[in-house]
Write a structure and sequence with these properties.
Keywords: Membrane, Signal, Transmembrane, Transmembrane helix. This is CNNM transmembrane domain-containing protein. It holds the Pfam family CNNM. InterPro entries: ACDP, CBS_dom_sf, CNNM. The protein is mainly alpha-helical. The chain has a domain of about 100 residues. The protein is built from 9 helices and no strands. The longest helix is centred in the middle third of the chain and has 24 residues.
């Protein structure tokens, strides 16, 4: 059970965007501000957070055979703990990805093949006005007619 709690904490805390949390801390509802302010210092130290959660998760998984050793023989404790971890622990969930996760991964891999030119708009497709021009109905009408 402790392993499952740590797994949920790992997924939940490591998936939070620092920018989103900072926005919530400054401009969210009072309840969101309060929660974001509590979580932000923890999530800002991502490497420390990840190491702490992984070490605690490993300790929880290692504690199972130690606990079982008092109830059954040593080889029985190892067999039961490995089976339970494979059935209910991280190893059983390791290969499963949701549709959203596969979309995110595919998008990230696609970025490795893109260049800056792919993200840029050709100059002939842009609209610009003089920096001193007044943005009035005439300029807006020209812009909308394009």
């Amino acid at each position: 059970m402790a392993g499952d709690i740590l797994l949920c904490l790992t997924l939940g805390l490591m998936s939070m965007s620092l920018v989103d949390l900072e926005v919530l801390a400054k401009s969210g509802t009072p309840r969101d501000r309060k929660h974001a302010a509590k979580i932000l210092p923890v999530v800002k130290k991502q490497h420390l957070l990840l190491c702490t959660l992984l070490i605690c998760n490993a300790a929880a998984m290692e504690a199972l055979p130690i606990f079982l050793d008092g109830l059954v023989t040593a080889w029985g404790a190892i067999l039961i703990s490995v089976t339970l971890i494979l059935l209910f622990g991280e190893a059983g969930k390791g290969g499963e990805l949701t549709h959203d996760e596969t979309t995110i991964i595919a998008g990230a891999l696609e970025l490795t093949e893109k260049t800056a030119k792919d993200a840029m708009t050709p100059i002939h497709e842009t609209f610009s006005i003089d920096i001193n021009a007044k943005l009035d109905r005439k300029v807006t009408a020209i812009w909308l007619s394009l």
